[in-house]
Amino acid sequence: MNPVLSEKRLLARLESARMIGGDPAGGITRPFGSVAEREIRQWFLAEAEAAGLRTRLDGAGNLWALFPGAEENILAAGSHLDTVSQGGAYDGALGALMALEAVETLKDTGYHPQHTLAVLVLTGEEPNAFRLSTLGSRLLTGMLSLDDIRDITDDSGYSVWQALAEAGATLNSHDLLPHIPLKGFVEPHIEQGPRLKEMGQPLAVVTRITGIVRHRIVIQGEANHAGTTPWLQRRDAVQGFAQIVAAFKALIDGHLDQLTGTVGYVRVYPNAVNIIPSTVEFIVEWRSPDQTVLTAVSEEYWDMVQQLGNQRGLGITRQVILNQAPSPMDATTQRLLQQMIASEGLEPIALESWAGHDAAHLARKVPTGMLFIRSNGKSHCSDEDCDAQDIVLGSRVLTAFLRQWDQMVLGRRPSC
Fold it and tell me: pTM higher than 0.85 for the full model?
């Protein structure tokens, strides 16, 4: 018989988390390094300790809530607690609190785990003022070192190093991360898209996490008087940007079944009504679960951008700020998640994730899986929502999965 989790406790925690970082303009704003993000971290630690779990922080500030087993090797479930600006209540927090409920339920029902079971809350998953994302998982897995980020600041000069220290990270350059015998990770998460809603299905197992490429492109023109400079003599960076964005849309339209992309960050200089814009800085992002397509299209676009810049006499520079390959999820973990979904009388749907997740980095080191919970199809906005029945159902599946996973003989792979 599957252990019976506390629906009331789980939903109450989700409501409590929703109250931390409420934005007067709508939604929830608790980016990494903010007062609200530090507050919810402390709140989570208090909840985990009240549940009788042992808490600790690692060198990246990731939070661990441990249910000790017969051996120290760890099987972890979790997600993140930070949000985008004016984000929703479920992206990240749902997975972290589902994991807490699952581990606490197993503990309360007298289960004696073979492995140590853990809730893992990863630091700084969302893009933030430091222009870093999946910070905790990349530091944990060695994809990023503390030296790599030592000099990174936000626009005010506040450093990511200081933000990590205030989050409780042990910034010791001689021992970046303590040895953590992590043997597997699963991340429950809302789908953030409409597919499950359209299928009429509450849960899915993720097969692969999309690859993501982000380029920071700077278009350099020349500032001059907006009234007296003849049109044909202008080197207007915004006019060049308009053409470059039109080319971006045309390229996307030709590959709609294979990839997607976004220009979501733009800065114009000097940004004055009576001055011809001298500079446009923007970030273009491409996503595809197919690495070949991702590389080919992003490089084709860069060639187009350079050609358009040359035609207008504009300088063009590029910085590759992210080049993350698609990440397949562990096949054995997928099968077990599908079995647990089927045990609830549901069809075990399999989906690729077009959103990036911490699980993409963990998967490069340990067997990793993801469980999707149906949302209303909206995310990274205040309208994000998730049905309580789906949350409870997903939590039952996760709890049963953790118990079965713990009893399996996992193949030995390198720990973080």
Answer: yes
